[in-house]
Write a structure and sequence with these properties.
mainly alpha
Length: 70
């Protein structure tokens, strides 16, 4: 059980600790963009390290796209 006087709890309990909605939304978009960049980088690294698995994944994706009905 965490201490009640920890800075994290104090920041969560303070009503004025909330950012305005536009700041929160902008921060959320920045974090999401950063996450997507890191995810793409991780996928690219995995594709370079495991080319056979990457090729199989590309073929599966292509098959899904061919059989998808619009």
């Amino acid at each position: 059980m965490p201490k009640a006087d920890s800075p994290v709890d104090a920041a969560q309990d303070a009503p004025d600790a909330q950012d305005p909605p536009e700041t929160t939304d902008a921060a959320r978009r920045r974090r999401r963009a950063q996450f997507l960049r890191e995810l793409a980088e991780a996928r690219a690294l995995r594709d370079r390290v495991q080319p056979r698995r990457a090729k199989a994944a590309r073929l599966r994706h292509a098959m899904r796209m061919r059989t998808f009905r619009w």
